[in-house]
Design brief:
about 160 residues; mainly alpha; disordered C terminus; elongated
Length: about 160
């Protein structure tokens, strides 16, 4: 099948297929005399595997490792399990960070409800945010906070 048909069946673009070929994720397809690539069912299977690997959170490099091992006739179950375990640990860290950010934002929101807007006269700071920093002072340890900038995207102009 030609690249356009393969792309449609796999749910990717022709450009993606060419890129995957260029980095060795899928094998180069043989060409007809007219220069058109001729892909077989194996290319579709590989593309679906790559898509499924990405959906599981694996990188293209990790997917490439698995495919290279398969092509070499090696078992990939143990290696894949390790990659998935690392991905799960990353997700757990992200969840912890997001929960800490949520707790901090909830605390700031509660402070905002309790503060009197009339007392907010400093043009260079917000008492809701500054109050949170003051709460951590006087202790031996700095307050444990998630870095909000890494957990919450900020749009330009916001």
């Amino acid at each position: 099948m030609r690249i356009g048909e393969l792309a449609e069946k796999a749910g990717v673009t022709s450009k993606t297929i060419r890129y995957y070929e260029s980095i060795g994720l899928i094998e180069d397809a043989p060409r007809h005399a007219n220069g058109y690539r001729d892909y077989g069912q194996d290319a579709l299977t590989q593309l679906r595997f790559i898509r499924d690997s990405q959906a599981a959170g694996l990188t293209l490099a990790e997917t490439g490792e698995i495919l290279a091992m398969k092509r070499a006739g090696e078992s990939t179950c143990h290696h894949t399990r390790e990659l998935l375990d690392h991905r799960l640990a990353d997700i757990d860290r992200q969840i912890d960070s997001l929960l800490a950010a949520k707790a901090e934002l909830l605390a700031m929101s509660a402070r905002a409800e309790a503060l009197d807007p009339v007392e907010c006269t400093d043009p260079d700071r917000c008492q809701v945010i500054e109050a949170g920093r003051a709460e951590g002072q006087g202790t031996h340890e700095p307050p444990r906070r998630a870095h909000l900038g890494s957990a919450i995207p900020v749009r330009a102009g916001a």
